[in-house]
Write a structure and sequence with these properties.
heterotetramer; A alpha+beta (1003); B alpha+beta (107); C alpha+beta (191); D alpha/beta (414); B: 107 residues; alpha+beta; Folate-binding fold; 4-stranded antiparallel β-sheet; two-stranded antiparallel ribbon; 2 helices; C: alpha+beta; Alpha-Beta Plaits; 2 domains; 5-stranded antiparallel β-sheet; 21% helix; binds flavin-adenine dinucleotide; binds nicotinamide-adenine-dinucleotide; binds flavin mononucleotide; binds zinc ion; SoxG (chain C); Sarcosine oxidase, gamma subunit family (chain C); TrmE/GcvT-like (chain C)
């Protein structure tokens, strides 16, 4: 039985009872409990099922290393799968369910895998399910997938919110045990800005549980005093419930603060992800106890010895009435003594070491505990709960000497420093023979921005094993970090701890040493993923010799605990199987996060409306209020069309085209890029940027221009206006504005830095509105204030002045083929100007139109669109734009590229118009298909559709496309293939479908 | 997550304030250059495993392009310098040699 | 036509552990040129009454101000209605030299973040050390605010002025508002 | 080689699995080989395999500086599809995809090819057009794809939020027989088959120099000594520039870090692979239950196998938007790989300025799916001097300005 004790429980508040449910059962715990402690207090040792064999599993540990006790926490929009019960703080109303079983935790049909375990060794699926071929997809894989996964998949969107925080410190100390506290103190006293973080809700780590004595007082008191001292320091910040999740390059560290996990439903952000930039990082992350590998070490009731102690001391919970302790080191004796003190029975301490005479052993003997040395456990008895252990000689093959009844086993295989954070960014390890663990090699620390070491370890994380060593090491680490961050440490001595003499541990990787196969296939290394000693040995035998191969072949260490308990044991077994030394075999790579962190925290505030910036023009609100159907264009959102009640989007588009062609339309063109280029060398500069000549443009005039990249491909186009002698205004595509502005800056700063040119991106300074259609001039005349007649403002001219009282710059340019004005007014007045236009336009039937109508009208005129006719592989020559490529210029960006053999070749796909024979609309993006096939058996393709629309103006489909030698093939009928492999015939025609002579725009 | 110092505005900021811009000190080849010269200008990258000279822009800051000498294996930065030069300045070379004795720039 | 001119969010406000407001229209001029040139400094002084600020510095006085944006660029601040005139005045004063002066008032949105928690509101969004030791009065920082560029400085003891692009004004306002949500004080910068 | 089967397992089970032999032999370098392949990733191993299988060239060594399959082959998000736009790409990726269909049988090693279907979301009009174009091209390239509407997207992937709020799903390019495979198993399966043909797979053997005489390759120097060869295939992904430098030429390649992450395992909830390129993230669920997630690359050259965390952030942000239910899942592990990105983002399978040296690189962020096709073509190139699968992927395309640009339709190449 596991149960609540009447005494002990330093972390719980017995005055405050909390109710919770587990698998629907209503249970009670105390404030301060973890869910695991509360479950144990309610005798709920069985908490889940393992991944592969569905073995019954109990609570094994008391912290973040726990592999078994994973639950579905909460429900609905607050369901969180795979939550570790050992790190979940109990709160009132908590609901949890166990995972990975059907129909119930107690009776799980998946357990059949357990009886088949012999047939399911590591990597069995690589060797089977191969034949028949279709069966993998239809039978085997669905079966394997059904059994995949642990926790339930949430179905709903998350009800909580998350945020980020940027913190800059001199010294970040990770881990708030006595080592972390002392390191923070030493660094803080030196004057460094220190942030000390601890994943648990309380401070002090192991020392108070272990009964350490520091500066003559119990560790608990020393912790309290030290906390007080730290809190008094202005330059030190303490933060608990905050895990050091990862250490990255240049002193970047992630802190995962669980702000409101323990108070769900509060209005606080659930998690806060701290992005910490530290000059120096101290990892004082302690050490993790290792399990021992004996048969049945996974049966509920077998626990880590320190965990057993934690439950008794911290929560007043006893995991069992009769606990057998099995160990290879002195520390587990503390557990035995602690149980004894709590009035519980410890029938035996099983110690693999031949002779133990340390003070702790003496104390145990004095307490009346039977100590069996040189022995091990042959196997644990029981299925869903330990009922006893069989004792054997450690040196032998497992013949049972004696059976001992018990309901719990506390095991200790020694301690491994928590080196994860040290290793994330490249810190290297050394093998410590005496303690049989890897510890950080201070000579090969992670290096930072200047190549300097930026991580130091402190305490047990360094491999220090007694409280005295821990404190001395931590004090030195804190001082070293402060010094490296540019501070002078104070010369205070490190605190002293009472001596803790102990006897050396004895590494034991298998119990007993000569265990048979049957025993080895019952010795769990990775509890969650069901990897056993026999599996690692099999991997080695089959040549998966690299520790990385073993990991991937057996899945050792790949579970949610990332092998915190299993990795060292596993690689020791591997080394043994290979006959190599452990350090030679090495570890797998430690990767962030230290323990899993929520996706919500990573995404932070970026969800819903602020998932991404949404760029709005000054007229955005008007469009919204008038039913715009939106289209994302970069981060902008532009009206695609404005459907009226009862109208489809397509109908709206057609109406907008016709209305603009017949009367007058209004377009919000504010997103167009507007870049001013000024200086004595501006003309020369633009001549390099554009394929055509811009230096010769007259003041007051506009010219359409093309820009290519150095690879020769067309990258942007737009109308350039010359403002004055040394100033040009370049319009770019909406998507191109920022890119082209940066492109200009790049060339000016990095290539032609001696040219006198300044550029500025004025895109957002202006609202730009196109007034388009036969009545456009009338509308502007109504507005009044400026002469917009053909004579004063001819096609491709611009002028500045007042229009309807607004400061306006009016360009007579046309992307539709109609009489058209584009008018720029200051953005702050954009909405007012738009509304003024709507008002005077009413008499002319003016209606707004969206981007789709714009696209159709430009296609009717045969104008190219960047992104449609171009795709990054098209050069201007392909588009028949030779007229826009200056022959006179020696150079422009892209010119040399266009002289390469493949581009200089006249034999390319070139722009033409396309008309289906039946007037239908060619499908988007389809290809012209020839008769033959190529060497790879693909049909010959010799052209493709780049833009295709139904033209409301012409009442039939029109298209543009790139066709092999297209312009030489006018009139030819070619076939286009559709995705369903049928064909549509189309005739090659001139790409200008409407008003070829340009009479409509030139009025 | 690198930190870099912009030599123009002096800001020392994290990588997200900057934009990486590829190999530094490329010589532009235009009309009249050979196919090989032009191809190498556009494509043949040193892609050094070790000390590299590269371009960055202070995108979320002063907007200026600058150069950095960085190691692609350790990610340490030896220094940053202005973009208006055709080769790394002496101080930068010295800073590199200080930490990489005997290092010579690749041809 | 300033009576028809509206600021991007019409002075929207929100309050949590700091107060966030869209600060209305400001006149702003991008001025590029040789910052070390005496004539240049004179023109700036004539328009704003301020000296050319040092690297990453900002000066404000009497509703006008100048901020250092880059080695060849200043942001000149004047009342919104005076911006065009200021551009003209600068252009006249600098005529003959190589410079650029353009009105960017309407390309910007301006915010203030006020209160003891203002630093933390920004520190949730910008990768900048916002401790008082690292960032004080008279400094301007151009940086990234979540996913957009922004610049800010201290206009008072606990008042930040923040400038971003107009098109993302709503996004910036929403970001600041969420960051400032009451109860979510971090307690790191202001303890 | 002992054949793998359920029967063999049953038999071995009774023998306590003591009878299993090494999957591939431990080998020491011989003095000389007909062909040396540098790099025991998927592409190197597949190249060797098809040299042996299709051309009978078996005096082959595969040299690997670390552990075989430990490069990008062992750290990729395993997406397999062939719905590429340009002819040469569609040809090689479809060849690969079709070889994946029978790979488990061909190699007698279950690589768990899972043709569960891959969809690439269209979330802007531009993407809709791009993917319709790809579907149209694929129809005539022998690649089975389809442009599907939002309702079908939702039906295939119920956990997706197709309504936005920011970028509603307008449709998707759907390749029903795209999918995933067990990445490590691909490397192991090929290694086992190569070894069975008598080839030497030599691990922990780093090539440190390339020797040539009169413009012709004669051998390599390695950490296990000098080895001679008639032909040399460099198939080392992110390290190709480094090897090319040893041989004295430069490649149009840059090495950058690409990152990925997995969530904790949950019960099956997603039967297809989804790529969302507008917001930039992609996700699938592995047979073990983790959500396997990938995103973009760092823009600077990097050889560390670590990347910058803000890319993880962007990716996760995008996917929480697309799949709101993952918000309460947890990231279990993140990692990086060094990928080799070329000037046009398409691979290079080519002869080189040094006679006898061939390079296979530049697969960048998307070469896992190509492994068998690439090996097939590369083997033919090495054995016969050219291959229809590789002809268009030569280095000369950069001189000529003849690019194979895939980004034009899809934006990304994974
Ligand atoms: C995070 C990530 C996600 C990806 N996702 C996908 C995906 O979903 N779908 C997809 O199709 N592709 C994906 N890719 C790309 C894919 O992984 C690669 O294109 C592919 O694995 C490359 O295989 P390879 O055999 O060429 O290289 P690698 O597998 O990298 O093998 C090259 C080998 O060469 C060895 N080597 C290097 N130098 C030497 C030397 N001097 N001497 C000896 N040996 C040497 C290396 O150790 C390595 O083992 C992804 C890549 C990454 C990093
Ligand atoms: N049992 C033994 O054999 C033995 C031996 C030596 C010392 N000890 C005791 O253990 C103490 C060791 O002190 P210590 O401070 O080195 O270790 P510790 O284990 O006491 O403290 C480490 C602390 O770091 C925290 N932590 C770990 N990873 C973290 C992360 N990623 N983020 C945030 N917090 C994290 C843990 O929650 C813990 O509170 C000694 O004082 C001694 O009493 C025990
Ligand atoms: C498709 C895929 C699935 C993975 N699943 C897991 C997993 O379930 N658990 C885990 O720990 N790692 C998983 N990994 C990550 C690997 O552990 C490892 O990080 C990755 O292969 C890179 O190797 P490295 O971290 O050793 O450098 C997975 C990797 C891939 C490519
Ligand atoms: Zn700067």
């Amino acid at each position: 039985m596991s149960t609540r004790l009447a005494t002990q429980g330093r972390l719980i508040n017995r005055d405050k009872r909390l109710e919770f449910t587990f698998n629907g059962k209503r249970l009670q715990g105390y404030e301060g409990d973890t869910l695991a402690a509360a479950l144990l207090a309610n005798d709920q040792m069985l908490v889940g099922r393992s991944f592969k064999y569905h073995r019954p599993r109990g609570i094994l540990a008391s912290g973040s290393e726990e592999p078994n006790a994973l639950v579905n926490l909460g429900e609905g929009a607050r369901l969180e799968p795979n939550q570790r019960a050992t790190t979940t703080e109990l709160f009132h109303g908590l609901t949890a369910t166990s995972q990975n079983h059907f129909p119930s935790l107690e009776f799980d049909i998946g357990e059949i895998n357990n009886s088949l375990a012999r047939f399911l060794p590591a990597g069995f699926y690589y060797k089977t399910f191969i034949h028949p071929r279709f069966a993998w997809k239809h039978v085997f894989e669905p079966f394997i997938r059904q059994s995949a996964g642990l926790g339930k998949a949430p179905k709903e969107a998350d009800a909580d919110r998350y945020e980020h925080f940027y913190a800059f410190v001199d010294v970040l100390v990770i881990g708030g045990g006595v080592a972390g506290l002392q390191a923070a103190r030493a660094a803080g006293e030196a004057g460094a800005r220190v942030l000390l973080i601890e994943q648990e809700p309380h401070w002090g780590g192991r020392a108070p549980v272990d009964g350490a004595v520091i500066e003559g007082k119990p560790a608990e008191d020393w912790v309290k005093d030290t906390l007080q001292a730290l809190e008094a320091m202005e330059n030190v910040t303490l933060r608990n419930r905050m895990m050091g999740a990862g250490v990255y390059d240049h002193g970047y560290a992630l802190g995962y603060e669980r702000v409101a996990d323990h108070i769900p439903g509060s209005d606080l952000p659930r998690h806060r992800l701290w992005r910490i930039r530290a000059k120096q990082i101290v990892t004082a992350t302690g050490a993790i106890e290792r399990p021992l590998s004996f048969a049945g070490n996974d049966i509920p009731g077998v626990m880590l010895a320190t965990a057993v102690r934690d439950y008794v001391v911290n929560y007043g919970v006893s995991p069992g009435d009769r606990t057998v302790v099995v160990t290879n080191n002195d520390d587990a004796y503390r557990t035995a003594l602690c149980l004894k003190r709590a009035g519980l029975d410890v029938p035996m301490i099983v110690d693999v070491r031949p002779l133990v005479t340390s003070p702790l052993a003496t104390e145990a003997l004095q307490a009346g505990i039977r100590v069996e040395t040189g022995k091990g456990i042959a196997k644990v008895k029981g299925r869903k709960r330990v009922t006893g252990v069989a004792l054997c000689l450690q040196a032998g093959e497992g013949s049972v000497i004696e059976e001992v009844k018990c309901d719990a086993v506390a095991m200790s295989g020694g301690f491994s420093p928590v080196v994860h954070l040290w290793s994330h960014c490249g810190g290297k390890l050394i093998w410590d023979e005496a303690n049989a663990h890897f510890r950080p090699d201070p000579a090969r620390a992670p290096t930072g921005a200047q190549g300097e070491a930026f991580v130091v370890t402190a305490g047990m994380a360094s491999g220090a094993m007694t409280t005295g060593e821990v404190l001395a090491d931590a004090d030195a680490a804190g001082k070293a970090a402060a010094r490296a961050a540019g501070f002078t440490p104070r010369r205070f001595a490190a605190p002293k701890a009472a001596e803790e003499p102990s006897e050396p541990m004895a590494p034991v990787w298998m119990m007993p040493q000569g265990a048979s196969y049957d025993l080895r296939m019952k010795m769990w290394l990775d509890f969650q993923n069901d990897v056993k000693v026999s599996d690692v040995q099999l991997a080695a035998r089959e040549g998966y010799e690299s520790v990385e191969h073993t990991k991937r072949y057996t899945t050792l260490g790949m579970a949610t605990d990332q092998g915190k308990l299993s990795n060292i044991n596993g690689l020791a077994v591997l080394a043994d199987a290979l006959g190599e030394d452990i350090p030679q075999v090495g570890t797998t790579t430690f990767r962030p996060p230290y323990t899993p962190i929520s996706m919500g925290a990573i995404a932070g505030e970026a969800r819903g409306e602020i998932f991404q910036p949404l760029r709005r023009t000054p007229i955005h609100g008007w469009h919204e209020a008038h039913g715009a159907h939106w289209e994302p264009v970069g981060h902008w959102r532009r009206p695609y069309a404005y459907p009226k009640a009862g109208e489809t989007v397509e109908e709206a588009v057609h109406r907008e085209v016709l209305n603009t062609r017949r009367r007058v339309g209004l377009l919000d063109a504010s997103t167009l890029g507007k870049i001013v280029v000024k200086g004595p060398d501006a003309g020369r500069f633009l001549d390099m940027l554009y394929t055509n000549m811009m230096s010769t443009l007259k003041v007051g005039r506009c010219r359409y221009g093309l820009m290519c990249n150095e690879n020769g491909f067309l990258s942007d186009d737009g109308v350039v206006a010359r403002i004055d002698e040394d100033t040009w205004l370049c319009h770019t595509t909406s998507g191109g504005a920022d890119r082209i502005h940066q492109w200009m800056e790049e060339w000016l700063q990095t290539e032609w830095w001696d040219w006198k040119v300044y550029v500025a991106n004025l895109t957002e300074q202006y609202a730009q509105i196109a007034v388009v259609g036969p009545d456009a001039r009338h509308v502007l005349e109504r507005l009044g204030g400026m002469d917009v007649s053909k004579e004063t403002l001819p096609f491709m001219g611009w002028q500045e002045g007042k229009l309807g009282g607004f400061d306006a710059r009016v360009f007579r340019i046309s992307f539709s083929g109609e009489l058209s004005y584009e008018i720029a007014v200051p953005a702050s007045q954009g909405l007012a100007f738009w509304e003024a236009l709507m008002e005077v336009g009413e008499a002319y039937g003016m209606q707004p139109y969206g981007t789709e109508a714009l696209h159709i009208m430009r296609a009717e005129k045969g104008f190219i669109m960047i992104g449609d006719e171009t795709d990054g592989t098209v050069i201007p020559q392909d588009l028949g734009l030779h007229w826009a490529i200056s022959k006179k210029k020696e150079d422009y960006l892209g010119k040399r590229a266009q002289a390469r053999s493949f581009m200089d070749n006249p034999d390319r796909w070139q722009l033409v118009g396309l008309e289906t024979l039946d007037g239908s609309v060619l499908p988007d993006g389809c290809y012209a298909i020839g008769e033959g096939t190529n060497a790879n058996g693909q049909a010959e393709m010799f052209g493709r559709v780049t833009s295709t629309y139904y033209s409301p103006t012409l009442g039939r489909g029109i298209a543009m496309g790139l066709v092999h030698n297209g312009p030489q093939r006018m009139g030819e009928v070619i076939r286009f293939g559709t995705p369903d492999k049928s064909f549509v015939e189309a005739r090659i025609v001139d790409p200008v479908f409407y008003d070829k002579e340009g009479e409509k725009q030139n009025v | 997550m690198l930190i870099l110092t912009c030599p123009y505005c002096g800001v020392t900021g994290e990588e997200t304030e900057f934009a990486a811009g590829g190999e530094a000190h490329l010589k532009r080849f235009g009309p009249g250059s050979s196919d090989a010269e032009f191809e190498s200008y556009l494509f043949a990258r040193k892609n050094e495993k070790g000390v590299t000279f590269e371009r960055w822009r202070h995108a979320n800051g002063c907007g200026k392009w600058f150069h950095a000498a960085r190691c692609t294996v350790t990610l340490e930065v030896f220094g940053t310098y202005k973009a208006q030069v055709t080769e790394p300045p002496k101080e930068i070379l010295a800073a590199i040699r200080k930490r990489r004795p005997g290092w010579e720039p690749a041809a | 036509m300033s009576d028809r001119a509206v600021s991007p969010l019409a002075g929207a406000e929100s309050s949590g552990f700091a107060k966030v407001s869209e600060a209305g229209l400001r006149g702003m001029i991008t001025l590029r040129g040789d910052l070390a040139d005496a004539g240049f400094a004179g023109a700036v002084k004539a328009v704003t009454g301020c000296d050319v600020p040092g690297r990453r510095e900002v000066v404000e006085q009497g509703g006008k101000g100048v901020a250092w944006m880059s080695p060849d660029e200043l942001l000149v601040m004047v009342p919104h209605a005076e911006a065009e005139a200021a551009v003209a005045q600068l252009s006249q004063a600098l005529a003959g030299s190589h410079f650029l002066a353009v009105n960017v008032s309407d390309a910007r949105a301006v915010f203030t973040i006020e209160g003891a928690g203002a630093r933390e509101v920004l520190a949730k969004l910008a990768p900048v050390d916002l401790s008082p030791e690292a960032f004080g009065a008279g400094q301007i920082r151009r940086t990234r605010l979540a996913q957009v560029p922004a610049a800010f400085w201290l206009s008072g003891e606990e008042v930040f002025t923040l400038v971003a692009f107009r098109s993302v004004a709503q996004y910036v306002f929403d970001l600041l508002t969420v960051s400032a949500k009451a109860g979510s004080e971090v307690g790191f910068l202001a303890r | 080689m002992k054949r793998y089967s359920a029967f063999a397992i049953a038999k071995e089970a009774l023998n306590n699995h003591q009878g299993w032999k090494r999957a591939w032999a431990k080998a020491q370098p011989k003095r000389k080989y007909d062909v040396i392949v540098v790099g025991a990733g998927g592409h190197g191993l597949a190249t060797a395999y098809y040299l042996g299988k299709n051309f009978g060239i078996r005096n082959v060594a595969i040299l690997e500086k670390g552990w075989l399959g430990g490069g990008n082959t062992g750290r990729n998000t395993t997406i397999i599809r062939s719905n590429y736009l340009q002819d040469p790409s569609a040809a090689i990726y479809e060849k690969a995809r079709s070889l994946y269909e029978t790979m488990s049988q061909d190699l007698n090693y279950n690589v768990m090819f899972s043709p569960r279907g891959v969809m690439m979301l269209a979330q802007t009009e531009h993407e809709v057009r791009g993917y319709k174009r790809t579907a149209a091209a694929n129809a005539f390239q022998g690649v089975e794809t389809e442009f599907i509407g939002p309702a079908r997207v939702k039906e295939l992937c119920p956990i997706m939020n197709i309504e936005g709020p920011r970028y509603p799903v307008l449709g998707a390019l759907w390749q029903p027989r795209g999918g995933t495979a067990r990445h490590d198993a691909v490397a192991w399966g090929y290694a086992r088959a190569c070894s069975a043909m008598g080839m030497d797979i030599i691990q922990k053997c780093e090539v440190t120099g390339v020797r040539s005489e009169g413009g012709r390759v004669v051998g390599v120097d390695t950490t296990k000594g000098a080895i001679d060869c008639d032909k040399l295939a460099m198939v080392v992904a992110g390290h190709c520039s480094h090897l090319a430098e040893m041989a004295g030429f430069r490649l149009p390649v840059e090495s950058v870090a690409l990152q990925a992450l997995v969530s904790e395992p949950i019960k099956p909830c997603m039967d297809v692979v989804v790529m969302a390129n507008t917001v930039h993230g992609y996700m699938s669920q592995s047979d073990k239950g983790e959500m396997v997630i990938g995103g973009g690359t760092d823009a600077f050259n990097n050889y560390t196998q670590r990347g910058s965390f803000h890319h993880i952030e962007e990716t996760v942000r995008a996917l929480v938007e697309t799949f709101p239910m993952i918000s309460r899942l947890k990231m279990l592990r993140q990692w990086g790989g060094i990928v080799d990105v070329t000037g046009d983002r398409s691979p290079i399978l080519s002869k080189t300025p040094i006679e006898g040296i061939f390079v296979n690189c530049g697969w960048g962020t998307g070469g896992f799916k190509a492994i068998p096709g690439s090996g097939w073509g590369m083997a033919e190139l090495i054995a016969k001097g050219h291959s229809p699968l590789t002809d268009e992927f030569g280095l000369n395309r950069f001189t000529e300005g003849r690019f194979i640009d895939e980004s034009v339709a899809a934006g990304v190449a994974h």
